[in-house]
Amino acid sequence: MFDDCQDMVKTAFHDVEFRQRNQLSAVNSINWARVMAQTVYYVTASERFDEPVTFSVPTGNFGNVLAGWIARKMGAPIRDFIISSNTNDILTRFINDNDMSARAVIPSLSPSMDIQVSSNFERLLFEMNGRDGGMTAEQMQRFRATGNLAVEADQRAEFLSGSIRAAAFDDERTLAEMRRIYDATGGYVVEPHTATATAAARMLSANDGGGPVITLATAHPAKFPDAVEQAIGIRPALPAHLADLFDREERTQTVANDLATVQALVEELTAR
């Protein structure tokens, strides 16, 4: 489960001696540098228009849209954000109903959104708490213990109202959107995460007065060939530089769901 793996990685990184001894870093949005780099996309894209824009962003771990939120705080001409999710709709429920209650994760065609604990939401919560790290840590610990988190009305009004809208789509509607895009564009192929964002953009921007809406495509369709084939009947080809990917040697190692065991394996591999 993604949440379990992510928690283990974060716990390992909190072990400063272990992290430094093995010279570890992260390439996903646990690493602030990843979020910081993504702000450039939002600034560059928004400045191509003569009026403020809306971004529609598929999200599970909240890192991508957080980068946009930071760009907006820095002065980028961004009107607001639309976030999309799948059946695992905890972020949509939080934005729309202040319902951040964890539920069982349901496997979907858009697995990067099969999440209940969005680690980068913690960074937004930190800002909502006036950058009070102790308060934020206590809230997140309570959320992990109880599966519930609520935010005060004045905090929601200041940080979320007029800034973030949300919608969620199940697999059936996601596949329908992938087919719609393919047919409407004469053959443009999107993967399922991107499809939730285009669907959310169409749903939530239709009656808001117009203005540019930019949908972020977050993965190559070839990463999700089964979903793409189910939607449009065509299996997407790998990019040329990865054409031999499935002919390459695959190396995996299964270990127990235990931090000490995983750290020992990391120590062994980094020592080679």
Write a compact overview of the structure shown:
This protein is α/β, with parallel strands linked by helices and 272 residues long. It has helices at 2-14, 16-21, 32-46, 63-73, 90-97, 121-128, 133-146, 153-159, 171-185, 192-205, 225-232, 259-270, and strands spanning 53-58, 78-85, 100-101, 148-149, 164-168, 213-215.
Characterise the protein shown here.
This protein is α/β, with parallel strands linked by helices. The chain has a single domain (31-237), classed as Rossmann fold, CATH 3.40.50.1100. Helix content is 48%, strand content 10%. It has twelve helices and six strands. The protein has a four-stranded parallel β-sheet with strand order 5-2-1-6, with helices on both faces. Helix 4 (63-73) links the parallel strand 1 and strand 2. Helix 3 crosses helix 4. The longest helix is centred in the N-terminal third of the chain and has 15 residues, at 32-46. The radius of gyration is 20 Å and the shape is globular. The model has no long low-confidence stretch (mean pLDDT 91).
What are the salient characteristics of this protein?
alpha/beta, Rossmann fold, 4-stranded parallel sheet, two-stranded antiparallel ribbon, 48% helix
The share of residues in extended strands comes to 5-15%
- Which percent range fits the helix content? 40-55%
How many H/I helices? 12
Low-confidence stretches: none
CATH topology: Rossmann fold
Strand arrangement across the biggest beta sheet: 5-2-1-6
Query: How much is the radius of gyration in Å?
Result: 20 Å
What is the CA–CA distance across the termini? 28 Å
- CATH class category label: Alpha Beta
